[in-house]
Specification:
This protein has three helices and no strands.
Length: 98
Amino acid sequence: MEAKGSSKKMIATQEEMVANKVPIPYRDQCAHLLIPLNKCRQAEFYLPWKCENDRHSYEKCEYELVMERMLQMQKIREQEAKFKQGGSIPLIPKTANA
């Protein structure tokens, strides 16, 4: 299952996220990294210097999602600016050979 507009695939299933009590706002393409991170945090009593590798990989995944959304929004803004200048928004995207 792939989220609309994202290049990352959902790895964790809804059942896994419910079973591991992942809060709804955190059920994104990085939830598969959050599940072991939360287990590690609970096992290590939330000590900040523990679970660093898990935390780093989760935060990197979230950062990549944010950057991807920012690039998508930038492209949308550029298309809107072109449309306001008198151009038109293409209904069919240009191919690499065109």
